[in-house]
Amino acid sequence: MTSLIAAPFILAQQAAAPSLDFRSLIFPGLMVAAIWFLMIAPQRKKQKEHQKMLETLGAGDEVVTTGGIYGEITNKKDDRFVIRIAEGTKVEVSKAFIHALVKKAGEEKK
Predict the structure, then answer these.
(1) Residues 62, 64, 69, 75: what is their CA dihedral angle, to the nearest 10 degrees?
(2) 79 Cβ contact list (under 8 Å, min separation 6)
(3) Radius of gyration for the alpha carbons in the chain, expressed in angstroms and rounded
C-alpha cells in the first residue's frame, strides 16, 4: 500500500524538466553563424551587385540574357529592356532575365 502512495512522488521527480544549459546552445549557434557567413551573406552581396548593374544599364550597352542571347539595349522601359539581337530583330526582355553586362556603351572590346 505504501508503494501506491509513493508512486505520484516518484513520477513527479521523473517528469521534472532538466535545467537549460547554455553550453548546449553553443554548437547550434555556431552552425547558424557558419551558414550565414558561408551562404547567405555572399548571396545577398551578389544580389545587390546585380541590382546595381541593372540600374546602370542604358541604351547601347551589350548584355547577355539568362537564356544565353547576346544583344544590344536600344530602349529602357520601367520593367523591361528592348534588345536588338540581329539587324531588324528586337525583343523585349524583363529586367529579371538580364544575366550580365558584356560591354558598356562607348567602351572598346578587349
Answers:
(1) -50
(2) 94, 95
(3) 30
